[in-house]
Design a protein that fits this description.
single chain, 68% helix
Length: 153
């Protein structure tokens, strides 16, 4: 970003004290790191598995879900996908940096706590958006259709 350019800047206008200049640069670099992390989170640290051919051709319609729910190969494939999701999400949540507890002796103020919950939120949004994608909604739709079929008889 512009951090290195600002760092080399000699003239700072109304900022005369070195302490103020350093404070500004510290905040700028912190903002830059936060922005990079948020962009990385939008791309997603976890890529959830999606159906592969021929299972990726199922239409996103209740009738298609019901038909696919009768096919043992489809069910096995989709159950395997959901199991992999559970494993990936669990591992990611356990390994995620936002799991690092905030020290009780931390005297930096509420910013650290806010950053902690912001990281946590971005992690969950990334995963949720993938689960809401069309291929993954087909997986859950077929498995729900199967569960409903079991309930009926």
């Amino acid at each position: 970003m512009y951090g290195p350019l600002w760092n080399k800047q000699n003239e700072w206008g109304s900022i005369k004290r070195e302490k103020d200049r350093k404070l500004f640069l510290d905040h700028l670099f912190k903002f830059e790191e936060e922005l990079k992390r948020k962009i990385a989170n939008l791309r997603g640290d976890v890529e959830l598995r999606t159906p592969v051919a021929p299972f990726d051709k199922i239409e996103q319609k209740p009738a298609s879900y019901a038909k696919a729910a009768k096919d043992k190969a489809v069910l096995e494939h989709f159950q395997d996908i959901v199991s992999s999701w559970c494993e990936q999400i669990t591992k990611y949540m356990e390994d995620d940096q936002s799991n690092i507890p905030i020290s009780a002796n931390n005297e930096t103020g509420p910013d650290v706590e806010i950053e902690y919950w912001c990281r946590r939120m971005l992690t969950l949004i990334s995963i949720t958006e993938q689960l809401k994608s069309k291929p993954n909604r087909v997986v859950t739709g077929v498995l729900k259709a199967r569960a409903l079929r079991n309930d009926e008889g």
